[in-house]
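Morning F.,

Quick status update on the modeling queue. The single chain you submitted on Monday has been processed. Sequence for confirmation:
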Amino acid sequence: MKKVLILCDLFPPAFGPRMGYLCKYLQRAGWKPVVVAEQIHDSMFSFLKGDTAVTYISYYRFNKKGILGKLEWIWIQLLDLLFHYKDRKMAEAAIRMTEKESFDILLCSSFRAFPLPAARKVAQTCKLPLVVDLRDIIEQYAGDEYIDYSFKHKNLFTMGITRLFRQKFLCDRNKALAQAAHVTTISPWHVEQLRRFNPDTSLIYNGYDPELFYPELQKTDQFIITYTGRIISLAVRDPHLLFEAVEELHKTGQISPDKFRIRWYMDKQSQQLVREASASCCIADYMDYLDFVSADKVPALLNGSSVLLQLANTFASDGPKGFMTTKLFEALATERPILCVRSDESYLEETIRKT
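Structure tokens below.
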């Protein structure tokens, strides 16, 4: 049996579907995956943990909402910026694992840069071929959404901090890309960008699990538009055209709140963005704001919907690029109609039209 050592920033039960599904099917293909990931207190993907061997690295002791938690978070960020603290700790744990059992390959999956420096260290020390999987890259964002904490107030100091983090992330990423035996990523646009740093880059869409997502038509008494997921910024996902259209349909008497609903399954911060974006339109009576549901409950929500909403924004020099989320493929799997607002006028629109 071949063995793959996987380093990743997130893994189930936290929000890590790509690596979770990969491990599920790697085992069926006769491979043994062993995972090292950061400890994240989340249960969104508990059902995907399975029997995969996982070592979780804990970096924080305090709740981030409290004073001690915030100070600790700032301290860890500073240590990481200056000394690669998080990567060093993960690399040490991974190297100890290679001393106990041998591996055939090293895979590192990241949405930004962490834990790519750790993967470089492990690959060099243990003489393992490195495959890098990038789920997102900095260049795809419209602004500074790739930073854990975006500054509300823009000034020379905050812009300098943002620029410093960007340079660090890109430097860490590009060093790993240069060392990698192969690179995989999530959309044709991402492939185009990353081939500048490693020509051996290929496309693996996020896709869906056919054991969970499949068409199951349900009859409903209402016309339901459903959105599941976060909105990190309105510059990346812009719903304004939808709100204007719903308001126009309401004014002309073509819809009414008892028959027409838009349901948002999302976190409180994303809900607030939607409320602010829709405030100028008289459509509050059509909106239902609901909490996140666990990922294994999503298929039933999709199959019980009339239309599945994909939020995006126009591909532009200063706009978002290359977004092709897991939600898109899960919607395709259930064979429900998809409404994309706004069109990216690029690969996302092309894929929806083609399918």
